[in-house]
Each structure stands twice: as C-alpha cells, then as structure tokens.
Design a protein that fits this description.
- A seven-stranded antiparallel beta sheet has the order 1-11-3-2-6-5-4, covered by helices on one side. A six-stranded antiparallel beta sheet has the order 9-8-7-13-12-10.
- The chain folds into five domains: 12-18 and 127-314, 2-Layer Sandwich (Beta-Lactamase), CATH 3.30.450.40; 25-121, PAS domain (Beta-Lactamase); 337-438 and 475-502, Beta-Lactamase (2-Layer Sandwich), CATH 3.30.450.270; 547-722, Histidine kinase-like ATPase, C-terminal domain (Heat Shock Protein 90), CATH 3.30.565.10; 728-846, Rossmann fold, CATH 3.40.50.
- The longest helix has 46 residues, at 291-336.
- A hairpin with a 5-residue loop joins β26 and β27 (652-659).
- Helices cover 37% and strands 23% of the residues.
- It is α+β, with helices and mostly antiparallel strands and 856 residues long.
C-alpha cells in the first residue's frame, strides 16, 4: 500500500524497463559489510564503529577474519553454501561475532559476485518461528470461506508483529488496490474498504516486492546511514534489493509521515508467481521487531500465500468443474437438436448458471435472437461489426463496451459489459452475454486523479499529501468477467464449434459413457436398496414372532427402526467414519428412556467404533435399554451402570449392570430381543456376548474385537463434553462488550472466538494489568474474563477494579488446584482448556447477569 524503493532516478515513460539501482543507504538499527571472493572487506556502513568499535577506515580492504571470530566466519560460510537461487537469503540468530560484543542476528545473501552480510543486535524476544507459524497456520485452515480466511490472516499477522494496524491489501487487474481486511488496536482509525491508485506502488516497486517479500521501517524519523564507498571500482552502486537493513527513499518516508505513521512493515502475498497483494502494517510509534519475529512473519506470509493459492485454485477448479458439466450438457443437447442453437432463451438459461449475465444475443447467419437485457438490434449490429474487426477466433470480454463502441454509453444501463463467444471461423456468428451497469461508490484514500506529480528533484514520484476519503461514483461499467469465466467461455466456444461441424461420433461416445455410468449407478443403488429391504424384512419377521398384540408389534418395530436410524445418522455425520461410544449411548438413552435417563451412568473413555460395529452395538444397547425399562431396573427405582475398557490387545470389553430393580429370572422363551443381545456381536463382529439373569438384576458382558475399534476421541473431557452445543451454549453476552485478559496470544485468539460465539458484540483484549486497567477506564466493559496468572503478575488488581464497578467477571486458570487465594473465593473459575460451554456454565454459577447497555 506504500510506494517504497523510489529513491533512484527513473524515466516515468519507461518505468517498466528501468533497472532498480538503490542508492547506498541503510537503516541505523544494524550495520552492513560486503566482501568478495577473496573475503576482503569492500564496503561497510558508516555506523560500523557503533557496533564493532572499528572505523570504516580500519576495515576497508582488510580480511573479514580480522573483524569476526573464526567460529562466526565458519557459520557464515556454511550459510552461504545453503543459498539456492538468485534471490535467496539465509539468516543466523544470536551469533557471537566479536569478543566483548553482544550477540548479533545475521542475514547473508549474494549481490552478483558480492557477499552482503547484515548484522543487528539479537533481542531477548526471539521466538521459535516454525512452531508459532505451524500453530497460526492451523487456525487459518479452520476458516470456512475465503473472506474469513483473509480476515483471520490479518489477525494472525497482528498477533505476531504487535503492530497497531495490519491490513490485507489486494490489487485488482488495473493495479489499484483495496484494503479487504484489517486488524486494529482499539482507538486506531480503520482503513477497511479504502482504495489506492496504482501509482502508489509503481511497477519497479512491485517487481521488488516479488523478489524481496519482507520490508520493515523501524522509525521514519531515523537518519539513514550511507555505505562507504558509495560506488565500486566500476562506478556502480551496490544493489540492495534483497537487503534486510536497506533504507527507503525520503519520498516514501514523507508518504508515511503524511499518514502519521512512525513505523511500517510489509509482507508480500505472492500467488501463482504474481503479486496478489500485501500485508501492510502500521505503528504509531517507532517499532523494531526482532529478526526472529520478522522471520516468523515472513514464513507466515509465505504459508498464507501458498494456502491462498490452493484455496483459489480449489474454488476455480470446483467452478470450472461445474462449468464443464454445463458444457457437456449443452453440447450433447445441441448435437441432438441443432435448432436449439437459435433459441436464445434456452442458451441463456444454460450458460447463466456458470457465467452470470443479464442478457444474451445469438447471432447466426445474419439472424439475431435476443433474451433478457440486451441492446437494440441496430446497436447490437454495431457491436458485431466492431467484433468482426478483431480476432474472430478468440473470446472477447470487457466490462465497458464503450471502449469498443463509442456510442455504447447510451445503453450502458442495459448492457455495459459483454463477453463474446465466436461460433465459426468466419467473422459473423456469435453468442454474446451482456451484463448491465453496476454503479458503485469507490472510496479512494485521496483523489486518485492527483496521485502522481513531478517532484522538486526532477522526474521522480511524489506522494499524495492527503489521505482523506475521496468518493467516486463509477458509471458505465459492469461487473468484470473473471479469468475463470473467460476460460469457461473458451470451453463453450470449443464445444459449440464441435457441434456446428457435426462431430456426432464424439457426441455419441459421450452419450454412451453417460449411459454406462447411469447403468452402473442404478445397479449399485439396486444392490443397496435390496440390502436395506432385507434388513427391514428380517426386523419385521422377528418382531412379529415375539409380539403379543398389534400395538406391541408396531411399537417394538418402530423403536428398532428408529434405533438403526439414529445409529446411521451418527456414523454418516462424519462421512461413514468412526463414531463415539458415548454418543451412541447418549442418543439411545435420550430417545427411549425419557425421565429415566438420569438413572443410567457411564464409566469409560470415549472409544471410537468403526461403522459396522457401531450399528451392531446400537441394536444391542437398544434391546438392553428397552428390556430394562419394561422389566428390569429402570422399570422401578433402580439404575443401570455401563462400564467399558480396552484390554491388552485393544479389544473393547463392555459391562452392563442393573442395580436396585425388581428380581429378574431368565425368560421362558428366547425372543428377538434376547437373540439380538446374545448373538449379534458374535455373529456379525466375531466377538463375545454373555448375559446373566442375577437376582439383583441383569448383568451382561460383551467383547468387540480390536479391529472394530478406531481409538479414543481426543476431546474426551467427561460426560458433559458430549452434549449437543445447544444444551449448554446460550447467548449470555448478546450485544455486550467483553474484556479478555490473557497473556498467551494463541489462547487469547481462541477465547475471543468463544466470547464472540456467545453473542459478544466486541471483545477487547489485554495481555497485562496496565493494558486491562486502561481498557476498563476507557471502555467500561460489561463483562470480563481474566486469566489469573499473567507471567510475573496476577489479575487480582483488575478484579478489584471490576468489583468496585459492579462488573461481572470470571477467572481462568491452567492450574487444576485452584487460584491459591481466598480474596475472590466466590468467583467461579474456568479451567483451561475451555470453550463457550465452560464459560456459559461458569456464568450460570456466578448468579449474576451481565448488565444491559442502558443500565447506569
């Protein structure tokens, strides 16, 4: 979003081909040394004495070994060996370069045959980049939509860098950009939705953003440090395109000062080898993040770019897959009836599903057929004439027909943009899709018509002076046709050409393949339906044999079919994957025990069963529960205990015990229910089943072989974990402002999501006591969630301030033994890890409601 790297002479009429020669300046937070193949120092930065104790005159022409320790020089040589590609940069962290000097972070790369070594003091806030980025990337992967994915990325970059404002800035086809997502520190102005002209980042800077994806300015008021000497013996400056410390032009510094920004950072977003956009970060005071943090940010940017490219390709592939199906349908239908090609309404209805448009015109052999919003016949003939003057064999698309036909502005409200699909080699036949005018207000950050001026130093770019919003109403244009839509149009062109030249053999082959696929599908469907019918027939037959009345027959059959359906729902919820044993018992008990549900308890880990075992066990549990409800412990005031464990080979051992019910005796005859209980698991799964009719109640023991057990669910947290979300989650915080105090960034992001899911309108985050107290004084939140342990301090002082104001709050801790204090013994404590359910339960125990916004 910022015009960097402009401190070089440039021909504005030839800027795309002008090489980038950066004048030799660096930012003062580090020093720079260059060496050649002889390892003699050829250039240094003028501030080298500050870091090394030696002046430029002491170092120039001297061996690098006289400056750096042997081990440091060895490490640098090893990193140089690892460089791959012309734009590669390697980094070393916390290196002891010189005796008696603090450790340095080092970046090394090649510039032609020169080795550039950049050093800055290592900081104590160095982080483990790979682990942090892995955690943040996993959160990105959970975003459902592309928009949510981009919004989440801004939050993640802000979490890594700590900058006041992080924007995701996206370029359009014309080079202008828009802020499509942002993450802000409270009180910072929002730039979301603002547009910036292409001249803000000229072609030269865009090229450099692709080569060097990371850029930082620690302090816009810092004086740049020159390199000594400025020119080499050949009279050339040092190419600092890949330099970490490289200073930026005073033009860009002026640009940032106009915005009131004191520090900036940018990370390029490269998709398919092209500059898709930037993470643009602003801070309103000087800020220098450590090299390790910057490396993590750069790595995150690269991972985001790859994930974004993958998502866009996946969406494009899905869209084009649907389009191919439409193309196949169109081609097959027209091959059977060529007259449909002149039916504009039918063609429109087919194509509009893949290329949205407002109207269609079909022009065949001088005859035109219209449907929807289209120009008048004479206006359309002018368009066809203009198309015929171009390449007749190519798809043509534009969002402004007036750029092709000058008088098109007269009908822009009906047809402002079009995509023309030629149907023959001769320049006369077309299918043309029209889109009507899409008037929209574009909010520019300053007047885009005054974006570029000649500066006082000659032919160089000058930043715009104003960042006030400049609104512009765009007229005479439609929604642009995307690259995917153009590819679909090309596929339609090829398909319809094949029809027109009578490639009936291929069309017949496609019909034959479609028929074969249909036959195969019908055969598979027939097989599955027969299996289901056989199972239902068996249930009906066995249930009928044991029924005493029509009512009992219908009731027993209905509950057994329902039990199968419930089990089927659970195993198909995860696409026929393993399902949880606790869920099976919960659902069966909830469906069939009613008020007696409280008399059933479970003991054991939440084991995962493969679908065949899950379905079989569902029938067994159903029969045991209904028998207990009719004749056993649950028919009286008794209870049922179900316990299970895995033995040494992983087989699942299940025990059913009825306690406190009426005396039971073995049944005089074996009904279908008893048969299901005793024989289903041995017959279907190769397991074991034993049923004992004790005087105190029925006891049953089952064994499910290990091959049917998929493991234990990781989220097993006890009984309440398996309630559906609606059982616990409420909208307790609907429309409220919540404050979250948490010193772990990753945990804070999860907690923020939990509070938002409970209806919180805003979540204000703080990582320490002073920040939290400032939020309370400034925002007066309605509710607070306080991590008790905040590094070397705790949140009791925050709690006291909230208590004085009457603001409800909860404590959070990662210690299972409690807070270790009695000052707030009546405040509920949420134990980590936690989510909306746990917060809602604690709020209920608090016995206080979050006050209305209108109160007080």
């Amino acid at each position: 979003m910022t015009p960097e790297d402009l401190d070089f002479k440039v021909d504005l009429n030839n800027c795309d081909r002008e090489p980038i020669h950066i004048l030799g300046n660096i930012q003062p937070f580090g020093f720079l040394v260059t060496v050649g193949s002889d390892w003699l120092i050829s250039r240094v930065s003028a501030n080298v004495e500050t870091f090394t104790g030696k002046t430029p005159a002491d170092l120039l022409g001297e061996p690098l070994a006289d400056l750096f320790l042997p081990q440091a020089l060895h490490n640098i040589r090893n990193r140089l060996v690892m460089l791959r590609g012309p734009d590669a940069v390697e980094r070393l962290f916390a290196q002891t370069l010189m005796e008696g000097r603090p450790p340095f972070d080092v970046a090394v790369h090649f510039s032609a045959e020169t080795i550039i070594i950049e050093c800055e003091y290592a900081t104590e806030d160095a982080i483990e980049a790979a682990g942090l980025v892995r955690t943040l990337v996993s959160r990105l992967g959970q975003a459902d939509t592309l928009a949510a994915f981009i919004r989440e990325s801004a939050r993640q970059v802000k979490a890594i860098t700590g900058f006041d404002r992080v924007m995701v800035y996206r370029f359009d086809n014309e080079g202008s950009g828009e802020v499509v997502a942002e993450a802000l520190t409270p009180g910072v102005d929002s730039f979301l939705g603002l547009h910036y002209p292409a001249s803000d980042i000229p072609a030269q800077a865009r090229q450099l953003y692709v080569r060097n994806i990371f850029r930082i300015i620690a302090d816009v008021n810092a004086n740049p440090v020159p390199l000594v000497p400025q020119l080499d013996p050949k009279g050339l400056p040092l190419d600092q395109s890949l330099s970490v410390l490289r200073a930026v032009s005073p033009i860009h510094i002026e640009y940032l000062r106009n915005m009131g920004v004191s520090a900036s950072l940018s990370i390029s977003i490269i998709v398919d080898g092209k500059l898709w956009g930037l993470f643009a970060c602003h801070h309103y005071s000087p800020r220098l993040t450590s090299l390790a943090t910057r490396t993590a940010s750069e790595l995150f940017g690269q991972m985001f770019s790859l994930m974004l490219e993958s998502r866009e390709r996946s969406e494009t592939a899905e869209y084009e897959g649907r389009a191919r199906a439409t193309t196949d349908r169109l081609m097959a239908t027209i091959a059977r009836d060529n007259d449909l090609l002149q039916n504009a309404q039918w063609i429109g209805e087919i194509i509009f599903d893949t290329i949205p448009a407002d109207g269609v015109a079909v022009y065949l052999s001088g005859v035109t057929h219209f449907h929807g919003l289209t120009p008048a016949p004479d206006q359309f003939r002018a368009i066809v004439s203009a198309l015929n003057r171009g390449a007749a064999s190519q798809v043509f698309a534009t969002d402004s027909i007036s750029s092709l036909v000058s008088e098109a502005g007269e009908f822009a409200d009906v047809a402002a943009g079009m995509i023309a699909i030629p149907l023959s080699r001769r320049p006369r036949d077309y299918v043309v899709l029209f889109r009507s005018e899409q008037m929209r207000a574009v909010r520019w950050a300053g007047n885009p018509e005054k974006a570029v001026e000649l500066g006082p130093h000659g032919a160089r770019l000058t930043p715009r002076k104003s960042f006030e919003i400049w609104s512009q109403l765009v007229k005479g244009r439609s929604t642009p046709f995307t690259r995917s839509e153009r590819r679909v149009a090309e596929a339609l062109r090829v398909a319809m050409l094949e029809v027109l030249i009578r490639l009936s053999d291929e069309a017949g082959l496609e019909r034959q393949k479609a028929h074969e696929r249909q036959e195969l599908l019908i055969a598979e469907l027939n097989h599955r339906v027969r299996n289901i019918l056989s199972l239902i027939r068996g249930l009906i037959s066995q249930t009928r044999d044991g029924a005493q009345t029509i009512e009992s027959f219908v009731g027993n059959l209905e509950t057994r079919v329902q039990a199968l359906a419930l089990a089927h729902d659970q195993v198909t919820r995860d696409r026929w994957g393993p399902a949880k044993l606790r869920d099976l018992i919960d659902v069966e008990a909830g469906a069939f025990l009613g008020a007696k549900r409280a008399n059933l308890s479970m003991e054991g880990p939440n084991v995962l069963l493969h679908p065949p075992a899950f379905t079989c066990l569902a029938l067994v549990m159903h029969e045991l529960m209904t028998n207990a409800l009719k004749y056993g412990a649950l028919s009286d005031n008794g209870r049922v205990v179900i316990g299970w464990h895995q033995d040494e080979d992983g087989s699942l051992m299940i025990d059913w015990r009825e306690i406190g019910g009426p005396p039971v005796t073995p049944p005089e005859r074996r009904g279908f229910g008893s048969t299901v209980i005793e024989r289903t698991l041995p017959h279907d799964l190769g397991g074991d089943a034993e049923v004992h009719y004790r005087l105190g109640g029925v006891e049953a023991h089952f064994c499910i072989p290990s091959r049917h057990v998929a493991g234990v669910a990781q989220e097993d947290e006890g009984r309440e974990s398996y309630l559906t979300p609606t059982d616990k989650m409420t909208r307790m915080l609907a429309g409220k402002t919540a404050m979250l105090v948490e010193d772990s960034m990753i945990i804070a992001l999860d907690a923020e999501d939990a509070l938002m899911s409970m209806g919180a309108e805003r979540v204000l985050m703080a990582s320490n006591v002073p920040a939290a107290i400032d939020i309370i004084r400034r925002e007066n939140p309605d509710f607070a969630l306080l991590d008790y342990n905040l590094g070397i301090e705790n949140s009791e002082s925050i709690a006291e301030m909230l208590a004085e104001r009457g603001t409800p709050f909860l404590f959070v801790t990662g210690y299972g033994s409690g807070l270790g204090t009695t000052r707030f013994h009546d405040v509920p404590v949420v134990t980590k890890p936690y989510g909306p359910n746990q917060i809602a339960a604690a709020l209920s125990r608090l016995g206080a409601t979050v006050p209305d916004e209108t109160a007080g």
